[in-house]
Amino acid sequence: TPSDIYVEILKSRTLRELVVVEFELQRLYGQPGMERTLKVLSEHVRIALTPVGVVRVQVEDRDAERAAAIANHLVAGLDRFNRESVNTRAKRTREFLEKRLIEARANLAQSESTLTAYEQRNKVVASTEAAAVGAMADVISQKLGLEVRRSYLSSYSRPGSAPLRQLEAEIGAMDRELGRLPSLKQEGSRLALDAEIQRRVFTLLTGQYEEMRIQETRDTPTL
User: Fold this and answer.
1) Is the pTM of this model over 0.90?
2) Which residue of 73, 77, 196, 209 could cross-link 15, Cys pair, CB 3.0 to 4.6 Å?
3) Main-chain dihedrals φ then ψ at residue 26, nearest 5 degrees
4) Measured between alpha carbons, how far is 50 from 220 in angstroms, rounded to an integer?
């Protein structure tokens, strides 16, 4: 659980070394090096998880204000680690979506150009089977959006993790729904479908990209 992870981060050497340096504990404890100082510090800091999942940080010191400051410093370090992790993940996702957005823009331009050429060549407006085109475009664009999300989620998640399994189930449901939709018979309808799908995918990716761009610059406390 997140609480279990918080406990392990609070117990980490990285955060405790920062405490040693910040509060000059090596001098305060009269120890010759970092290892000995960390050992003494561990005797005065207790991190525990209550049965209901609340993380409890207890610090013992001869100075009450310093004890409180050390406890707060540990929690601030955990908070900083969380923000950096979230921002790093958002940056990686934003960079991934940026590349996909360039591809989507090119695909959209190509599909619209092909559709326009077909309409000019045949002197028609490819609007036949409009209801079927709209229904299929809706399902296919949603499926493609889920596949994009699966791609960037898998870059930082373990195989078989709950979020990935959930996405796989949703993609499978979309495939089953597509199997029940009627096929398009006319070439103009198929070209119109492709153009509509590319438009919707471009819109979807643009929204996801903007969301990640905002999240990447967000610096709000997580605790």
Assistant:
1) no
2) 77
3) -60, -45
4) 26
